[in-house]
Amino acid sequence: MRLFGVAFPAEKDKNEWEKEQEEARRRDHRRIGTDQELFFFNDVSPGSCFFLPKGAHIYNTLTDFIKSEYQRRGFNEVVTPTLYSTALWERSGHWEHYSENMFTVTSEGSQTYALKPMNCPAHCLMFEQRVRSWKELPLRWADFGALHRNELSGALGGLTRVRRFCQDDAHIFCTPEQLEEEIVACLDFVRSVYQVFGFSFHCQLSTRPTPCLGEPEQWDNAEQQLERSLQHFGERWELNPGDGAFYGPKIDIQIKDAIGRQHQCATIQLDFQLPIRFDLQYVGRDGQLHRPVMIHRAVLGSLERMIAILAENFGGKWPLWLSPAQVMVIPVGGNSESYAKQVVQQFREAFFMADLSDDQGATLNKKIRSAQLAQYNYIFVVGDKESESGTVNVRSRRGKQLGRRPIEEVLTSLTQLRDTRSNQDEF
Fold this sequence. Notes:
This is threonine--tRNA ligase. It is an enzyme of class 6 (ligase). By secondary structure, the chain is an alpha+beta fold. The strands form six sheets. It has an eight-stranded mixed beta sheet with strand order 3-8-11-18-15-14-12-13, sandwiched between helices. A five-stranded mixed beta sheet has the order 20-19-21-22-23, sandwiched between helices. The radius of gyration is 25 Å and the shape is elongated. The chain has helices at about 10-25, 30-35, 55-75, 85-90, 95-100, 120-125, 180-195, 215-235, 275, 305-315, 335-350, 365-375, 385-390, 405-420; strands at about 40, 50, 75, 85, 105, 110-115, 130-135, 140-145, 145-150, 165, 165-175, 200-205, 235-240, 250-255, 260-270, 280-285, 290, 295-300, 325-330, 355, 380, 390-395, 400-405. The chain has two domains: about 25-315, BirA Bifunctional Protein, domain 2 (2-Layer Sandwich); about 320-420, Rossmann fold (3-Layer(aba) Sandwich), CATH 3.40.50. About 35% of the residues lie in helices and about 25% in strands.
């Protein structure tokens, strides 16, 4: 039996710790997911999340955000299978090092297949599908395919540790000369995304572990290139000796949430081994065959885990652009419901998550309070005056009354807040 305890040098430290624990409980993503009807779990599929419509909205909004960045940054999306023969995993080396974490299926003829726990071997198959030229590089391939990892049941916990998940996974195949520029571009990608969320972050350069694969000279050169990329990037970073992957060094990005907790989501990893195992080659400027460099890259990491972190970071008070409950329209008076429905429809046609309050027996104050507790970003009260003038009476989630505004003005303001991914509450 093991006993654990927490000790404090002073009473004030104990009180501070208790406040932090209470705040963490209040922000628990599992409670927020239940209260806001975002997602749930069921024992028929342990470790796999069921996203309800509001949760799916957050999920898809995050995916669309990253996809919009792909367009700007020269990434191309690919779609790959979910099930592969173990021959692929033996070739990649994952069967030797990772098979106990893979779900397998045996078909007729005793052929064994495994659900993919990562996308990199499939992307290597794509690269070797035909002869590649230096003119094509860098190739940046992104994949949102579902991944499955056989985590121990005792390790599962909400969205932070699941068996079925998706991540903003990408692999870059480039020449050695392009490596530093690609690493800096990946770091800039991370910074631009985390700035939108309001996360502060720092980087860790994780170097050669023991044991590792590859020649010492190869490791030294790769680590020096990553260090130069971090110096050029200009953000705070620290050395994390011996914590690299067995196949190459990596940069891990640590974020800090609203209550000071650290999370590791983004990662940028070099891989020496897969290009060798798959004998990946391209024709260089000199007409000779050369080995490409492979970079594994994720910004959000697991979408499920990122949703958990964001839910707790915002305490369930989602910014407008990410919110599954953006607008609540409350009709006042018997003749205003038809107008309220028109307002809801107008905002839905502009791709807002808008709802109509239909609690006939409640007072206006109770309806407003219910909408605030449900974390609607904006509440529109409409009556005869608003119907006659084509306006809505606006108040924010925090209770600030913004007054009667023309619908088009409000729609323009909210569209700007949403499309710029602003985290401010009021316009």
